[in-house]
Design brief:
With 623 residues, the chain is of the alpha+beta class. It has three domains: 145 residues, D-tyrosyl-tRNA(Tyr) deacylase (D-tyrosyl-trna(Tyr) Deacylase, Chain: A); 244 residues, 2-Layer Sandwich (BirA Bifunctional Protein, domain 2); 114 residues, Rossmann fold. It has a ten-stranded mixed β-sheet. Strands 1, 2, 3, 4, 5, 6 and 7 form a seven-stranded mixed β-sheet that branches. A five-stranded mixed β-sheet has the order 26-25-27-28-29, with helices on both faces. The longest helix has 21 residues. The relative contact order is 0.10. The protein binds one RNA strand of 76 nucleotides through α5, β21 and α15.
Length: 623
RNA sequence: GCCCUGAUAGCUCAACUGGCAGAGCGUCCGCCUCGUAAGCGGAAGGUUGGGGGUUCGAGGCCCCUUCAGGGCUCCA
């Protein structure tokens, strides 16, 4: 059990006066004038900081501050003297840590406009005081911090974070979001409102959940932990293509693909300090007597790899990439939602080392463009949010404007007064779902902290080691979440009377062949063969249903091209195709149709049809 | 994690206040061989999520539990 971290002896005094006489070897440097102090009507706070985990610094300082103020107000003291007093404890912390904690308490008190005097640390001091002697004038306190579970510290910091919102136009106008006229920017408005209020009564389940089941893509798996899903062949197929496509984009951009372990030792020194920056709850795996946590991204694996690499400034920018199949985040059970938020998910994760901010900005922008391309390839509309630390924003205003220009519409800007996280800025591409909730897909962040923490170095021209800047990039965001975005978007389309569809390159079946009767089977099979060789995903409805029934089946599966072949086609050696998008029927040759489909597949990965070509050979995965 | 709601055939859902567990779709068998979103007939299919309790009797009431959806919270 982690227990006592700090002991306080608190005296309400008529006065206290001290003079620092002589340095010890751990003395803090203080200017001459601060070596002496006197305060009337003071609360004298004698402090011993004990040997304990430094991670608790903020927390312990906060609690101590609260204790002091509690007593201060009860006894109606007028000022506070913080007096380092080692003799309260036999188990002292390191001097540096103690100094830091006491300063922190001092600062916290000053921030709240209390008059504070600090006696110098590590000096032999003479002091004199007169204790008031009323019942509350002599108190001791032990400040304890419960062992916090391995979670959730950065979060608490965020709660006190001051943030402000703006809308930045492509013309470069930066307007406080409250004053912005959202009339023509409905989706940005929804996004902004979701970000700032979040709460709304929407007692419906997101429509993608029904769709992912009905289309036999993905399903719940009650035998697993919550938020771990079962992927049927068609879902797996779409997922693989998305993965392959985003990986291709990232590799073509120049990232080196790697693979790193999915679990890490809790006790690893660097990782544990990193974990404190992350509010997530982890899955824990036991192996012998050790505990490992499952990664929530590829960060660790790549940091540790980069730490061991020998990197010259000539190698920068340097990019490592991994498709994290899987990442694990033990989200609170109430937060899980279909494909939107999972406990086990797949996400591309790239880290780019950059020499300086100029290079980092350049890479950031290139990755921004890659993300734009991604969104276009999956046919999803999005809004952009950029989040900055104030100081960084003031220096990089032009940069933000450029991002608004690139997407050609106003974007949301959030500004933090202080840097609570490890990054100074990030962008996010966000989509609105059918319930007007927002979800982040693509995101890139500029990290100014972790190369130091993980001791990642490159050697500059002078032969000296330097910590580079680090970009975290997920060009597509979570793959699962991309499918959620597609399904929600298509659902919204169906509400507008349009037919929902997958982009052609993601359609499990691109072309369905329906013979009018068994007499036409042989011709239908010729066509099947033809398209298979043309790399079109084609299948054939060889079951005993009526034509109408088969059409209905095909439409329910969102098949983009449905070819009906009967005596007419057989005679003319052509095909009559029903086009899902327009609903029209056209007759054309096999070559023409193949060209049409190939055109829509361009520059996208291809995989063969994930199910038997004959429908009569297909099992039902669900209902 | 907390609060609310829910779980009945493979799927979607019925079953009045506690009184014989049902339909449509799908599956299987047979008929039909069909021109652009459901052809016809028949059969099989259930420890009502799991466990415990109350009751002459529980799908429906009580307790526990698992999973799902929503709200809070959270979203690196």
């Amino acid at each position: 059990m982690r227990g006592v971290i700090m002991k306080l002896l608190i005296l309400h005094t008529d006065y206290i006066e001290f003079i620092a006489k002589q340095k010890t070897k751990i003395a803090e440097d203080v200017p001459e004038e601060k070596r002496h102090g006197r305060a009337e009507e003071a609360l004298a706070v004698f402090i011993a900081v004990e040997k304990e985990d430094e991670k608790a610094k903020d927390k312990i300082a906060e609690k101590a501050t609260e204790e002091i103020l509690d007593i201060y107000s009860k006894v109606k003291a007028q000022r506070i003297v913080l007096y380092p007093y080692a003799h309260l404890s036999s188990s002292l912390s390191k001097p540096d840590f103690a100094i830091a904690v006491i300063r922190l308490i001092g600062n916290k008190l000053k921030e709240r406009d209390y008059e504070v005097i600090k006696a110098p640390f590590g000096w032999y001091k003479a002091f004199e005081l007169r204790c008031k002697g009323h019942p509350m004038s002599e108190l001791s306190r032990e400040i304890r911090v419960e062992e916090e579970k391995k979670e959730n510290r950065a979060l608490k910091a965020e709660q006190g974070l001051k943030k402000s919102w703006y809308v930045l136009t492509p013309e470069g106008d930066n307007i406080p979001a409250e004053e912005f006229d959202f009339t023509e920017y409905e989706s940005l408005k929804i996004f902004y409102e979701y970000e700032t209020s979040g709460t709304r009564i929407m007692n419906k389940e997101p429509p993608h959940i029904r769709l992912m089941k009905d289309l036999e893509l993905v399903d719940h798996e009650p035998a697993s932990d919550q938020g771990n899903l079962r992927w049927y062949p068609k879902g797996t197929f779409i997922k693989r293509l998305l993965e392959e496509h985003v990986s291709n984009i990232v590799r073509d951009y120049g990232a080196m693909e790697v693979e790193t372990p999915i679990m890490y030792d809790y006790a690893h020194e660097k990782l544990s300090s990193y974990l404190n920056r992350f509010p997530a709850r982890q899955y824990v795996v036991k192996s012998d007597d050790r505990e490992y946590f499952l990664r929530f991204a590829a960060c660790f694996g790549q940091y540790l790899m980069m730490h061991d690499m020998t990197i010259s400034y000539r190698h920068l920018p340097l990019r490592l990439y991994e498709l994290t199949h899987y990442s694990f985040r033990r989200e609170q059970s109430g937060e899980l939602a279909g494909l939107k938020r999972l406990r086990t998910f797949t996400m591309p994760d790239m880290h780019t080392l950059c020499r300086d901010m100029v290079q980092a900005r350049d890479e950031f922008l290139r990755q921004y463009r890659l993300s734009m391309r991604w969104m276009e390839d999956i046919s999803i509309d999005y809004d952009v949010a950029i989040r900055f630390v104030r100081e960084f924003y003031d220096e990089n205003r032009d940069f933000a404007v450029e991002m608004a220009k690139l997407v050609g519409k106003p974007i949301l800007v959030e500004i933090w007064e202080e840097r609570f996280f490890y990054f100074v800025m990030k962008f996010e591409f966000s989509i609105n779902d059918a319930l007007n909730k927002a979800a982040t897909l693509s995101t890139v962040q500029i990290d100014v902290e972790n190369t130091e923490r993980f001791d990642i170095n490159y050697v500059d021209e002078k032969g000296e080691g330097e910590h580079p800047l680090l970009l975290h990039a997920s060009i597509s965001g979570g793959i699962d979440r991309n499918l959620y975005a597609i399904l929600e978007t298509e659902y919204l389309k169906s509400l507008r009377g349009e037919k929902p569809s997958f982009p052609i390159w993601l359609s499990p079946t691109q072309l369905r062949i329906i013979p009018v009767s068994e007499k036409n089977m042989s011709y239908a099979e010729d066509i099947l063969e033809f398209f298979r060789e043309k790399k079109v995903r084609v299948d054939i409805d060889d079951e005993g249903d009526t034509l109408g029934k088969k059409i209905r089946k095909g439409e329910k599966e969102w098949i983009p091209y449905i070819a009906v072949v009967g005596a007419k086609e057989e005679e003319n050696r052509n095909i009559t195709v029903r086009l899902r998008k327009s609903g029209e029927q056209i007759t054309l040759s096999g070559e023409e149709l193949a060209e049409l489909i190939e055109g829509e597949n361009e520059n996208k990965p291809f995989m063969n049809i994930p199910l038997p070509e004959r429908l009569s050979m297909r099992p039902k995965f669900r209902g």
